């Protein structure tokens, strides 16, 4: 189509010049301007121009202490960051709040939990987060700590034992939420003391480390079956003329009210982060909107519209390619793409689940075809260490996916949709 239009314009120009009584330079300029105008009037994709600058692409990976020992030894961590840099990754999301502990020395945690650091031997005598920031920045990596557990904690953790009044429950009074084989409990995100504790942890990281941003996920919400503790029920009644919340945890008004409260808190946290470090990027890595909202009361679509999310990485961990593509094309995802960098979280494997490299390559390409800001992989150990395919083959494949270095698509540095 493009070729036909340009050909028509050129032919018209030639005809004009030959049939004019005085074929002047002016006539030629007018004709050429018509060609240029027609071309510029076409949609960008008709000109084969990408919708975002090809000089920027998120190439991230999450670093966690679950089923992985990458964080537990200084040299191993250093070598891992080196290899990621060599393979042209540009972003790491290291877990800093997990299993009811901080993975960095924390005065806030020491005061509330009774321990300033996760007791795992490999973390003792170190500041893992400082190592990642220092080494990562030397290698040109963007470092965005990941607040992985959010309001969640192990049922047998010191935090849960020392602050039982901070926990929330179902309508039948039960508190335990199964996550795989693990027993979890949830801090009540509506209690002022809980809100202050989580905010203090976040601000502590932002203030004390030269981080590029901080990331939250669905755990910054609350499983929708919870919220029936006495404090939350009393607060709901106060705002509903004495009416108690529905026993149906999926009741639209009960869901909306709790999600709205979490949104209010997210706004408060965003404001606190920006007051501490203006250029600290606030990133969110949720599930698709319908799941996040219905099951975790995390209304990231609204957060994005409010301007309190500056980087979105949607977790689309799907084997079925048709389902994967469908998730990429939801209206709320397309809308967010027009405002902020939106990337796709891709599953590279789990402890007992090897993902073929072919599937990973295909999903990366489908995200690129739709001009997403980039991709991030869950999680580091499964990139090549924890797979049925040979590590060297996996690394060669990633080298082909990311053949040249590329900058992180930072909204604050002038990224445009």
3D structure, described in words:
Strands 5-2-1-15-12-11-10-9 form an eight-stranded parallel β-sheet. The protein folds into two domains: 38 residues; 350 residues, Alpha-Beta Barrel (TIM Barrel). The chain is built from 16 helices and 15 strands. Helix 1 packs antiparallel against helix 2 and helix 3 packs parallel to helix 5.
Task: Describe this structure in a few short sentences.
The chain has 417 residues and is α/β, with parallel strands linked by helices. It contains 16 helices and 15 strands.
Query: Architecture of the largest domain in CATH?
Result: Alpha-Beta Barrel
Number of strands: 15
Percentage of residues assigned to helices: 40-55%
- Determine the number of helices (DSSP H or I, runs of at least 4 residues): 16
Beta-strand content: 5-15%
Q: Describe the strand arrangement of the main beta sheet, using strand numbers.
A: 5-2-1-15-12-11-10-9
Secondary-structure class: alpha/beta
The CATH topology of the largest domain corresponds to TIM Barrel
Oligomer: single chain
* Computed Rg: 25 Å
